[in-house]
């Protein structure tokens, strides 16, 4: 050990006798200081603008902060430090003295390696300066995350050093050694994309890839797979260095040396591949809010998923969504489910590549005269795909009928007992499902999925209608993230010519254009009497058909239409206020009330209570303002006419209920819950996609909370996390100039003065 320490000290002395080591320290400190000041400047600017900072620790030191930036640039520094470790000995001939000395090759390798590792600790110490400063200047910093991120930077330095040491042994030219180190680092960063069409090769090359390994630490996650990866990389290149020196010292043949290299590589790949299997991986999330771990709700559902579980992804080559699951992105796609595999290691993830008619307008235009199979062969030829890796849509549907997805990217969770659930991608900026959508799909496998039935047969708004007035947008649009079918609900249409099935949980009745028959009304009444939940949406000019429905509940839709004249919008565009009664529906309404949100209800009629003997507790959820609004009985053309209040016609300026929430306790059953709204347009595709300046519409939030209430809080899945506590910076606005002076000027200058003094004293001695 003493010999190793002497070699390490000697190498450190030689290293600091060179200006390169000092220059690296200076530039490293300058870059770290510059990045830190830029990040802190952003935080101070947000404070000055009145914004509350969010997750300051991550912003400064996490996956998008100072440590991330320095990590990305380590490849520029380490080769400069390692290029001369052995190249210098080879070029000067001193390697022969080492071979003739009693010092073993192992001692040489470890001693020289440790010298750069110690230097790496000096780099870490430089990074510790802004870390310590930050701990005392921000509110409740996530200290474990910071030090885990530092660990990631340090272990990367150690791995890069081992690579650089090996490259320094194979050439006597230091520049060549540095370039060779850069080349190896490039290979390890890009090898993850090699051989993606072959499963085993893909797994091996993906494991070899260093890209993203260290960034896991920046996210506050310690993973045994990544720790072991760096240990194996360090071991492999140190072993390669030892084998190289041993071969030269003992004059071993090329064959013997090559076999040694191969055995080390095989051992590393075997151990690495085995340790990367899900069942062998251990995780530790150090973050204060456990952001890298499933929320408790999701964990509870994973515990209930006993038995086998397979996630099969169906990817259509001829669809616009193809790239989301293509072979090149397969491993990255699988990482989306790593947090779930963590809690169920036996979970299988499979991919099925097929071709069939998709939703790509490009292919319809370019290959309009070709058959589906001919299009498929053309795309394979252009993309250099092997046609044998694909099957036809017809073959897919024999084992799993996905024809309803119209060729779009879809995943299917399937248990060994045959239960299955669909998971899709969405037409928004995030594309892929969040934890809430994934967990919702899984929850339907361990419990009852709420069944929502939309009544048809009287001109009602349909759940499958994609028109402006239809409800498909929020009900069953597969490409819309928040659609009911993507949040764990089942959606169907229903006719009332027969009794409502027992498995129906919520019945939706909207905008009837004709009345129920006597038989239909009896079936409706029976459903209400047994405690069934309802959403009833009226509409102006439909009172004659809708009032008999709500009169069973002790309510009626008023004659006329509610108006609230304004300069900006038509008089019948009502921005209904969210009332205190909404808190009985969901506590989430509290924040909306606080922020002044409204619900936009065009052409709405008031909902009035006419009978309080039905046994319902009634809460007012939405209402018009008490001033400037009334029930208009005369004006019907609000585009060309001006609505004015006429007391002689019974028009009174007052607040009117737009939406009521009714509850009733039923013996032996869950509480009956009913929503009655005087407008059907508020849930329509057009209204959900319309933005009106100044009205702060929260229509979709209303839908979400209505159905959350009707599912008794079971859906949508609650995956919200506690807000990170580090949400303030204790620095005055004018402190930035002093930060820049300290971190960008004084610290690098201090290192420079130290280095110059050291080098001058060396020359004098």
Word description of this protein:
This protein is of the alpha/beta class and 765 residues long. The chain folds into 3 domains: 2-287 and 735-764, no CATH class; 296-424, no CATH class; 448-710, Rossmann fold, CATH 3.40.50. Helices cover 45% and strands 13% of the residues. The strands form 5 sheets. The protein has a 9-stranded mixed sheet, with helices on both faces. It has a 5-stranded mixed sheet with strand order 5-4-3-6-7. α22 (472-475) links the parallel β8 (451-455) and β9. It is elongated and about 110 Å long. The two termini are 29 Å apart. The mean pLDDT is 89.
Structure, briefly:
The protein is α/β, with parallel strands linked by helices and 765 residues long.
Strand order of the largest sheet: 9-8-10-11-20-19-17-14-15
What value does the average pLDDT take?
Answer: 89
Unreliable sequence segments: none
- Strand composition percent: 5-15%
Number of domains: 3
